Q: What sequence folds into this?
């Protein structure tokens, strides 16, 4: 894990936007396409705004999500809505967006269709993750009945339905092995409280306690933490 600490969130957003754009541009040059995985929440809004204005060939970039609440894409809690309104604008409006939410009544019923969409994407260029105060990342929540399946590196699954015990809405989450099928991972954190959580996470090894440990303790992909107060 490599830590990058910034004096302000605005400075972080600008530096990380440049970093992400460079990774995408490198993949575009090498293979003709690039795939960016992003997370929801309040933290990445400024980053999305900065990234959307960078001049790369967005028409050859695919964007998808690390997780999604099983709600309509007009719902205030929809990550699709967040990305559509904050990232897929300006220059990035040309990017292709692949949602995790589909027409199935429940996330459980929508798993197979979502897995097929993810399988068609291949290896990701960069995965941008956040972390909750409970140590969850994507929708891999501590205490969720499905957590062990989501963290199992030998599961062979790309995504799974999850019903958190302490958060609203059924979710669709990428599994840990699918999150790790990428060139690079960035953990984006803001606020002193998140730094304290990160310190607790790093002090132990049980991923069931803090699922983000599954990302930080693996050896397959380097993880960069971008942090500002």
A:
């Amino acid at each position: 894990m490599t830590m990058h600490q910034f004096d302000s969130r605005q400075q972080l957003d600008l530096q990380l936007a440049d970093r992400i754009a460079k990774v995408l541009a490198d993949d575009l040059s090498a293979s003709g396409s690039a795939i960016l995985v992003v997370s929801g929440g309040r933290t990445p809004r400024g980053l999305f705004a900065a990234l959307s204005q960078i001049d790369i060939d967005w028409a050859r970039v695919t964007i998808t999500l690390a997780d999604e609440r099983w709600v309509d894409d007009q719902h205030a809690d929809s990550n699709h809505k967040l990305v559509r309104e904050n990232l897929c604008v300006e220059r990035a409006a040309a990017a292709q967006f692949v949602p995790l939410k589909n027409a199935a009544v429940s996330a459980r019923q929508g798993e197979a269709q979502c897995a097929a969409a993810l399988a068609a994407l291949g290896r990701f260029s960069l995965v941008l993750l956040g972390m909750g105060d409970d140590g969850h990342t994507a929708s891999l929540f501590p205490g969720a009945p499905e957590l062990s399946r989501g963290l199992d590196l030998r599961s062979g699954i790309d995504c799974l339905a999850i019903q958190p015990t302490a958060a609203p809405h059924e979710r669709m989450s990428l599994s840990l092995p699918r999150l790790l099928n990428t060139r690079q991972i960035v953990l984006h954190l803001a606020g002193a409280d998140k730094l304290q959580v990160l310190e607790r996470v790093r002090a132990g090894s049980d991923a069931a306690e803090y699922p983000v440990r599954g990302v930080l303790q693996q050896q397959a992909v380097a993880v960069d933490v971008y942090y500002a107060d």
Q: What stands out?
A: The chain has eight helices and ten strands. Residues 2-228 form a domain with the Rossmann fold fold (CATH 3.40.50.1360).
